[in-house]
Structures are given as structure tokens and as C-alpha cells.
Design goal:
Elements (H helix, E strand, L loop, with lengths): L6 E5 L12 H15 L3 E8 L9 E2 L2 E7 L6 H17 L4 E5 L5 H8 L3 E6 L11 H16 L3 E4 L2 H11 L4 E2 L15 H6 L6 E7 L6 H9 L6 E7 L5 H6 L7 E5 L3 H10 L2 E4 L8 H8 L4 E4 L2 H7 L4 E3 L4 H13 L1 H18 L2 H13 L14
Parallel strand pairs: 1-2, 1-5, 2-4, 5-6, 6-7, 7-8, 9-10, 9-12, 10-11, 12-13, 13-14
Antiparallel strand pairs: 3-4
Helix pairs in contact: 1-14, 2-3, 7-12
């Protein structure tokens, strides 16, 4: 039987392809939605801009891009943009399915369901527990979780621990769909980004992401400062909005620590592939697409021992006690003294994630949900990984 062709809109992401201020859902979107286009579905992505003129790009790998202006105020930028996108979708009346990222946007599912559309919300964790949010935001996100649980056609959760939490709390079954791990092929001869930063392969530790408290850079920097090594620590990224946290972490006096700003595309893949080890010191994660990419590249990894990370890495990465600077420092020292072991462990990890996390399977499961072929997917998700 031919696959039903769907008209799908997505709201709640920032950029496509990922660029300044991007988050995990933007990387996810750039992998999933072009694959849906390849299968004959129509995709429209609503993206945020903060000032005119709007970007000239109107399609990305077949995905139609619609830009809507929003405020720069943290937290409110998402809500305002998603409201505008919701009513643009309703009044244009050109889609059958809406995929909402971030449970904080689930309030708009009410209007979309009333307009007769199938709606799915991707929830990446217990948002109201995140330290970055002030009290009023935590209360709003907690209230939004009630809408998330009962209004959409289904909720898609990317890690089994959050899935169990939501199912226990709301006495309902939700879907589990993780990210995929495949990474794009890059030109092995193109090392311009390494030359720009003045490093050689294997001469640096690496972090890539947003500079926000959840990501744990305030552990990583002092932990690295305790380690005697000529290797550098490259911290790629920045804050999506100006913040005192970003300013504070950049005040280090250690000349080995490099802040190149945002790096994109093949350049960031090159940095990941050639790192001595990648470091993910997060306090909070869903199922991290960065960890999957790093392991898919066969790069040694050190990450915090939160459940979501351990679900991915099993025994194929170094882990440190969450929030413990000394524990992270010891892992860095161990990595420096055990190069061969690190490479062997990373090779096992690459094979493991390719078997468990596959973008084609991820695409199949989203199509099954969006088309109504399945009420839920991933019901057999196992907490042990």
C-alpha cells in the first residue's frame, strides 16, 4: 500500500539549518524533516527572526521555510513566535499535521485541534525542573504539561526516563522516539577550521552547545584548569540571548581555553571528529543529539552520569559524577593517560549507537504516528537501554 502523503508544519524550533542560538531540536529538525520530504511529504517549518530583513533562504533540502518575527526576551520569544505560527497555520489552511517542539508551546495545540488538525508534541524532558527558569516560568511549564498530556493526538518523548515519568504522572501511554546517530560525510582534506583555531587533530578537548547553566560549563572550566596538559579546551557556541552566565564563564584566565563562537556545518563535524575527547558536562539533558553524533563519529566521550546520558553510552564513554568538578577533573586526567583505551572504547561505542539509533527508523516511526498508522510507537522502550 502506498504511503499516505502528508502536509506537515513544524513550530517550536529556531533555525534550519542550525545556526546562532540553535538547540538540539534544530539539529533534530534538520535531520528528520528533509527525510520526510524525500518520502513525498510536504514540510513547512516556522522559524524565528528577531529583526528584518528576513533571511533569503526559502527552502532547505525541500522543506519550506516561513520566517516570523518575535521578541528577544528569553522565554517569551518561543511563546510569541509559536502563537504567530499557530494562527498562520490555521488561517492558511494548508496542512494536515502539526508537530510542536517544546511542551511549553502545547497551549497552541488547543487551537490547532479545534481547527481539525492532528497535533503531536515533542517533549524532551521535565522542563519545569530546569534551573535556568525563574519561578513564574516553572509554574507555566508545569501547567503546560497538563495540556501536553491530554490535548495532542500523542506526545513524543526522546528518552525513556522522561517517558516513564510522564506516564506515571498522567496514567497514559506516550510514544518514545530517540534521535538518530548517523553523521554526514565530510572532506577529510578540509582542515581549514583547525588551521583557523591553531590546533592539530587530537590536540584539544571539545564542547559544542549553548552557554547556559544546564550545560555545566561552570564545572568543565575549573575541572580543566586543574589538569596539567598542553592540549586546549575549545568551547564552541554561545548564549541565544545576552547573559551574565556567558560573560562569567568567559572570564577565565587560562590561555588554553578557546572561545571561537558559533561554528556550523562541516566545520563543527570536523572539530568533533578530530577532538582528543568530547566533553558533555550537562546537569540536564533529554536524549542528547550531540552525544549521538560524537559517538557516531567514533570520538572518545566524557559525560555527566545523569540517567539520560548513561542510557545512550552504556559502558562506552567516561562518566563523572554530575556537578562534581573533582570527578570531572579525574576523568580528564584518566583520558590523557589512557589514549589507546579511549580509542578502543570509542570504536565500540560507534558500533553500538549505529545499531540502536538510526535516522531511517526514526523517520519510519514519525510517519507511522503522523499518518495514524500507529497510535503510539516505542511502547517497548527499556530503561536499561
Amino acid at each position: 500500500m502506498d504511503e499516505q502523503k502528508l502536509r506537515i508544519a513544524v513550530i517550536g524550533i529556531r533555525n534550519m539549518p542550525p545556526s546562532s542560538g540553535s538547540a538540539g531540536e534544530d539539529k533534530f529538525a534538520s535531520e528528520l524533516y528533509p527525510r520526510l520530504v524525500e518520502r513525498g511529504h510536504e514540510m513547512t517549518a516556522y522559524l524565528r527572526v528577531y529583526q528584518k530583513p528576513f533571511p533569503a533562504m526559502r527552502k532547505y533540502k525541500g522543506v519550506k521555510l516561513v520566517y516570523l518575527k518575535t521578541t528577544r526576551r528569553s522565554g517569551f520569544d518561543t511563546l510569541l513566535h509559536s502563537m504567530k505560527a499557530t494562527f498562520h497555520i490555521i488561517f492558511s489552511n494548508t496542512v494536515d499535521v502539526v508537530h510542536i517542539h517544546n511542551g511549553g508551546n502545547s497551549i497552541w495545540a488547543i487551537f490547532l485541534r479545534l481547527a481539525g488538525m492532528r497535533v503531536f508534541v515533542s517533549q524532551d524532558g521535565v522542563d519545569w525542573n530546569r534551573e535556568k527558569w525563574p519561578l513564574y516560568a516553572k509554574l507555566y511549564l508545569y501547567a503546560s504539561s497538563l495540556v501536553t498530556a491530554f490535548v495532542p493526538n500523542d506526545v513524543i518523548i526522546d528518552n525513556v526516563f522522561s517517558k516513564k515519568f510522564f506516564e506515571d504522572r498522567f496514567k497514559k501511554t506516550f510514544s518514545f522516539i530517540p534521535y538518530g546517530s548517523e553523521v554526514p560525510e565530510i572532506d577529510d582534506d578540509d582542515d581549514e577550521i583547525l588551521r583557523t583555531l591553531g590546533v592539530n587533530p587530537g590536540e584539544y578537548f571539545l564542547f559544542v552547545g549553548r552557554f547556559i547553566p544546564d550545560k555545566g560549563l561552570h564545572y568543565l572550566i575549573p575541572a580543566f584548569e586543574q589538569v596539567e596538559t598542553d592540549k586546549k579546551l575549545i568551547l564552541v557556541g554561545g548564549s541565544p540571548n545576552p547573559s551574565s552566565y556567558e560573560k562569567e564563564i568567559q572570564e577565565t584566565s587560562d590561555s588554553r581555553i578557546v572561545f571561537p563562537g558559533y561554528v556550523y556545518g562541516d566545520d563543527v563535524v570536523r572539530l568533533m571528529k578530530d577532538a582528543y575527547s568530547y566533553i558533555q558536562p550537562s546537569d540536564v539533558e533529554g536524549l542528547s543529539p550531540v552525544i549521538l553524533m560524537v559517538m557516531g563519529l567514533g570520538t572518545p566521550l566524557i559525560c555527566s552520569d545523569i540517567e539520560e546520558n548513561k542510557f545512550i553510552v552504556r559502558t562506552d564513554a567516561g562518566t563523572f559524577t554530575r556537578g562534581n568538578i573533582d570527578s570531572l577533573s579525574e576523568q580528564l586526567k584518566f583520558a590523557l593517560n589512557n589514549r589507546k583505551f579511549l580509542r578502543e572504547r570509542a570504536t565500540r561505542g560507534k558500533e553500538m549507537v549505529y545499531q540502536r539509533f538510526n535516522w531511517e527508523k526514526v523517520t519510519d516511526e514519525h510517519v507511522a504516528l503522523f499518518s495514524g498508522q500507529s497510535k503510539h510507537v516505542g511502547d517497548d522502550a527499556d530503561l536499561s537501554g
